Amino acid sequence: MEEKKKGLWGEFTKGIIIENPVLRLMLGCCATLAVTTAASNAIGMGAATTFVLVCSNAVISLLRNVIPNKVRIPAFITVIAGFVTIVQMFIKAFSPALDTALGVFLPLIVVNCIILGRAEMFASKNKILPSIIDGLGMGVGFTAAMLAMGVIRELLGAGTVFGLPVLSGFMEPIIIFLLPPGGFFVFGMLIALAGKLSKEGKAPESMGCAHCPLAAGCSKLKEKDCKKGEAE
Fold first, then answer.
1. Which of 5, 87, 99, 115 is least buried, going by the fewest C-beta atoms within 10 A?
2. Which residues contact 206 (CB under 8 A, 6 or more apart)?
């Protein structure tokens, strides 16, 4: 039971940093760059995507042994489109301003690579509970990345956070952060930070000749020029 809990916790946390869909897997970048000019837009888009991720993963996992392999992609898109329609109707009814702000990117959740990718790579191959946890973790990671970008861009570009003035009287807004170049700049900085937190590119403490992929043809190794410790 404890191992199962650790496994589910691992499935949930992997999407936050290690396999963050936006900052590590580079999926859903169009929507991320387009709607993160305000933190509220980022939260709305993240919540909508998370809902679709969790629900579509659950349904696809339940139907994984029923859907024929040859038509699995159209079937996945049909399931996803159903939940996107529900989300779109809900937002139109209760938050018209958010619907206007998200624009075409709300219905385009149907073809979001994150959702289709998790359906194909995970939900269609696993049971319902791990699939729900996977969708929730990826959704939280996506929302966190969107929110980070939204807060930074709104703060520096408009001097506000969630519409509340923060930098008024302290500094003039830097409008470029609300424009595409500023979005790409913030995006790049967050990608670098995510890579640092996930320890990507960290050099091994001790490699040695034995672990070198070119060891077989290395002239120094053949001439016994390497140190004894490295050869071992």
1. 5
2. none
* pLDDT tens-digit map of 91-146: 999 999 999 989 889 998 998 889 999 999 999 999 999 999 999 999 999 999 99
Q: Are 22 and 142 in contact (CB under 8 A)?
A: yes
Nearest Cα to Cα of residue 116 among 78, 89, 146, 86: 78
36 by Cβ neighbours in 10 Å (0-12 / 13-18 / 19+) ranks as: buried
Strands, E assignment, the chain: 160-161, 164-165
Q: What is the pLDDT of residues 38-50, one digit of tens each?
A: 999 999 999 999 9
- In total, the chain counts a number of residues equal to 232
Q: Look at the alpha carbons of 23, 25, 28, 29 in this order and tell me if their dihedral is positive or negative.
A: positive
- Amino acid identity of 121? M
Q: Which DSSP state fits 206?
A: -
